[in-house]
Specification:
The chain is built from 12 helices and 10 strands. By secondary structure, the protein is α+β, with helices and mostly antiparallel strands. About 2% of the residues have low confidence.
Length: 282
């Protein structure tokens, strides 16, 4: 019988994120040598990389940071995916995700393709993604990258489960400085995490989408038998509702629904610039 204990199995699982049976088999083959077992797990993982290619990666985490570049703050955020929540909360996966974030910051990459081509430890990041999958025994993917800049940038990470790393991440950039601006930027970032706006302001909403919503509102009101004279007002009211649901500056503030986000930022003398919001798997 191989010379290892339950504690050895637990330790190797924590190092690799691999399943119980895979760890036991590797320890058996390595006669209890943890380092050799680790190598065997990696080799087995690399051989299975092609088999994992079509698997779904619906779990993972969001990581973000804010750096100072000259007179600006720059927020960078990545979503890194895996197959199971067990791997998502493992130390090796979290460590790898932090490495991806660091590469995103240092490279200045604006999209995932550019990020994957970035040199990290003497090889493209894309190769490290494959190696991470080999070590963890699951498909690993870098799904999204966001970068926003402004005088003040807030990065907010939210855990949907206390046992998992952050599943929701927000970057919110504004022009303006000072305690009130910083506080408002943070409050709005938290709001964005909860209320999922799709656009910063009405100008960002595609004109064809606005027209489609207007047409649907008109046709719905007519189907409901609303009087002709009231149609214009009803349509505009429903369009306003669409903007409140989808446009950040139009949304009622989560902490005080009597104010819009636009009013909150104006009172703090903060001018909104851009935001990004990621939720793992969505």
């Amino acid at each position: 019988m191989a010379n290892y204990t339950a504690a050895d199995i637990k330790a190797l699982r924590e190092r690799t994120g691999a399943g119980m049976m895979d760890v036991k088999k590797a320890l058996d083959e390595a006669n209890g040598d943890a380092e050799k077992a680790l190598e065997l797990i990696r080799i087995k993982g690399l051989k299975g990389a092609t088999k994992r290619e079509g698997r779904s990666t619906a779990e993972g985490l969001v990581a973000a940071t804010v750096q100072t570049e000259g007179q600006q703050s720059v927020g960078v955020m990545v979503e890194v995916n895996c197959e199971t929540d067990f791997v998502a909360k493992s130390a090796p996966f979290i460590e790898f995700s932090n490495k991806v974030l660091a590469a995103a910051v240092s490279s200045g990459a604006e999209d995932v393709d550019s990020l994957l081509g970035t040199d990290v430890e003497g090889k493209p990041l894309s190769e490290l993604v494959i190696e991470a999958g080999a070590l963890l025994g699951e498909k690993v993917a870098v799904r999204r990258l966001a970068r926003v800049a402004g005088a003040t940038v807030d990065a907010y990470l939210h855990k949907t489960s206390k046992d998992l790393p952050a599943q929701v991440g927000v970057l919110f950039a504004v022009e303006g400085e000072g305690d009130e601006v910083v506080a408002a930027a943070h409050d709005v970032a938290v709001h964005i995490a909860a209320y999922t706006p799709n656009y910063l302001n009405r100008d960002e909403v595609p004109a064809e989408l606005v027209e489609s919503e207007r047409r649907i509102a008109d046709e719905t009101a007519r189907a409901e038998g609303k009087p002709e004279g009231a149609l214009a007002k009803i349509v505009e009211g429903r369009l306003t509702g669409f903007f409140k649901e989808n446009v950040l500056l139009d949304q009622p503030f989560a902490k005080d629904a009597k104010k819009s986000i636009a009013q909150v930022l104006e009172e703090a003398k903060a001018t909104p610039v851009a935001f990004a919001r990621f939720r793992v798997g969505s």
